[in-house]
Amino acid sequence: MSAASEDGLDGEPAYRWPIPPPEGWTADDLDRIPGLPPHTELIDGSLVFMSPQTAFHGRCMRLLENALLAQAPDHLDVMREMTVRLDSKNRPEPDVMVLSADANTGPGQTWYQPEDILLAVEVVSPDSLERDREVKPRKYAEAGVPHFWRVEQDEDKGLPVVYVYELDPATKSYALTGIFHDRVKAAAPFEIDIDLTAVGRRRGGSEAEPR
User: Fold this and answer.
1) Residue 145: CB partners within 8 Å, gap ≥ 6?
2) CB-hemisphere CA count at 13 Å for 121?
3) Which of 50, 67, 115, 142 shows its CA 20 to 30 Å from the CA of 84?
4) CB neighbours of 177 closer than 8 A, spacing ≥ 6?
5) What dihedral do alpha carbons 199, 200, 202, 206 form, nearest 10°?
6) pTM of this structure
7) In order along the chain (211 residues), what is the average pLDDT of each group of 10 residues?
8) Collapsing DSSP states into helix, strand and coil, what is residue 76?
């Protein structure tokens, strides 16, 4: 093998991707594998890497995190981009989630239990379409997470569209309870009112173009 093929960009050593064990990775491995890209998830024992984030995706997370945190009662907390240990083979990372404040164990914490999560929110990206529409909501429901939101971009206005789901505990599946275009208003897991047209609004009232 030539020296060039052994090196990465700018002469840096080439990254050697971790080789999974025959039975696949476990949830505990996610904290131990060296050099993983930020926001790596574990789905069915396989590592899932995130594509570069779009401006729309980042602005949606900022809007939802700030709005939910401002409206949540004191016994609840709001976090973004933290993994949930659903079982030994699955540690997905919701974009935003509402959880019990008692679930916070300290600054070194890297994951939460599904029973501590009241709402999981996924902002759909082109590379995550199938995971966010099918795989992850099914797994959140099976783990008992009571509320799930899927956020997609409206093709005409470029604004968020929020699909709101509630868990049917008898079937461990989600039922759609509403689709919200300009404003999302929900009574659970607490009273929520979010102006979705503010997704590109910066402090002071100026607008950033949604992309």
Assistant:
1) 84, 114, 117, 118, 119, 120, 167
2) 24
3) 67
4) 164, 165, 166, 186
5) -130
6) 0.86
7) 48 69 89 88 91 91 98 98 96 97 96 98 92 96 98 93 97 97 97 96 57 45
8) strand
